[in-house]
Design brief:
The chain is mainly beta. The protein has three helices and 36 strands. The protein folds into two domains: about 1-35 and about 430-475, no CATH class; about 40-425, TolB, C-terminal domain (Neuraminidase). Strands 15, 16, 17, 18, 19 and 23 form a six-stranded mixed β-sheet that branches. Strands 10, 11, 12, 13 and 14 form a five-stranded antiparallel β-sheet that branches. Strands 5-33-32-31 form a four-stranded antiparallel β-sheet, with no helix packed on it.
Length: about 475
Amino acid sequence: MRNFGINLIGVRGSLTMAGVAVAALASGAFAQANCAAPESDFSVTTLVPRSSGIDEPIKMDFDQISKDVIDIYWVERKGAVRKYDGATKALVELGTINHNDEFESGVTGIILDKQFKTNHRMYIYYAFGNATAFEYRLSRFTLANGKLDLGNEKIVLKIPAGFKKMHTGGAMDWDENGNLFLTVGENEGGLGGPANTNDLRGKILRIHPEEDGSYTVPTGNLFSAGTAKTKPEIYVMGVRNAYSLRYDQKLKGIVWGDVGPDGTGVTEEDNFAKTPGNYGWPMFAGNNQVLKAGSVAAAPKNTDGANTGLTDLPAARPGTYSYQQQCAVTGPIYHYDATLDSKRKFPPNWEGRWLVSDCNNGSMDTLNLNGAGDGITTHGKALGKVKLTRPLDLKYGPDGALYIINYAGWFGADAATSIQRVDYNGACTSVGIASRPGPEREASRQRNLALLRRGGGALIPWVGLHMVNGRAAANVR
C-alpha cells in the first residue's frame, strides 16, 4: 500500500484527490487501514461472572436490541438455557432441556433462527436417551412469554450415536441462503462412524430447516441425494470432534476446529473449506499423518466390518493448519465493516485475521489464509491481555466486539467460568463516506464523485480513508 495526501473540505470530510476518480468511492468501500492497534487499545469486560450462577456454558448466540444493547443466549452442558439481558445486565432463566449428560454428552449447541426477532425460535443440539437408546437431537424451540415452550419442541433431526457418550460436536452456523451447518462428533465411532459415508457421526452436516420443523437437503453437499450407501446431509466427513464452527459470508466457506487424538502427534486441526470434502479421520489427522497403516490419502478405502457405506472414499484433505495435540477451538475470520456504527468493533487492521484458540492451553492466535484458502501465510499471538480459561466459544457479536465463553472447569464450574467481551477502544478506524448514516453518506458520496470527476483522472481499483493517531490518510492498492 502507498499513502497519498488528501484534503478534507468542511466538517463532513469530503475527499478530494486532484486528477483521480476513485471506483471504490462509488460503492462506499474502504481499504484495510495500515495503522497499529496495540494491546492497550483493547479492553476486557466480564459480562457474566461465575457468581451469577453460570455453570458449564458451551455455546452462545446474539440478539441485538439496539446499537449498544445485545442479548446473549447460551446453553449449558447440564441442560440450562439462559440469557444475558443487555439492557438490565441480568441473567434470565429460559428453561431446562430434558437430556443425557453422562460423561461428555449434554446440551452442546444453540443458534437463533434467522428470523428470531419475529418468530422467537432457536435451534438446540443435545444428547438424549439411556443405555438402550442413545442419540443426538437437533430440535427447534420457541420462546413464549420469555420462556422456552418445552411442550412445543420440533425435533428436526435424530442421530443414533451408540453408547460412548463423548466427542459430541454441536457447533452451528447459517449461510446466507438459510442453510444450517451442524458439527456432529464421531462418538468414538471409529471406521463405522466418521469414515462411514452412510453414517452422520463424525461429520459436518448442511441442511435447510423448514417451517414445519422438518428439513430439506440443499444441492452441493459431498454426496448427491440418491447415491447408494451415502447420506446426502454430509458436507464434510472424516471429522473427530469439531466443537467449533463458523460460516464466513465474505469468503463463502466454513472454519472449524477439530480436536485431535491424545498423544504427541501434530494432529490438532483448524480447517477452512469452501467445498465439501473428506478430512480423513480416523485414517489420517493433521497434515494427512497416517494413523491407520496402509491408508493412502489420495485413495482411502474403508474395508472395516462396521462400515455400512462406500468402500472407496473421497481423497483425504490435510488440515489447513495443524499443531501438536491439545484441544482446537476456532473462532471466526474478522471482516471490518466501515458502515457499522459501533464504538466496540475491532479495527480495520484485523481484516482477514482468523482467530484461533485452544481449550487446553488457553492460547489466542491469529492466522492468515493464503489465496487458495488451503494454507497459512502468517501466524502470530494476539490479545495477550485476555486471560482465557478453557475457552469453548469465540464469536464476533453484531457490534463487532469479540465475545468469549470461558468454560473453565472440568465437568463442573470454576471461579473463572464466564462470558467476556473484548472491545477495541483505539483510534484506528475507517472514516469518511462509509461510516456515516445512510442519507448523509449518499449525499457525501455524490459530492465527492462530482469533485473527483472534475479532476478527469483514471479509475483506481480501491481507495480507503482511515485515521492514524488522529490524522487522516488514504490507502491505494
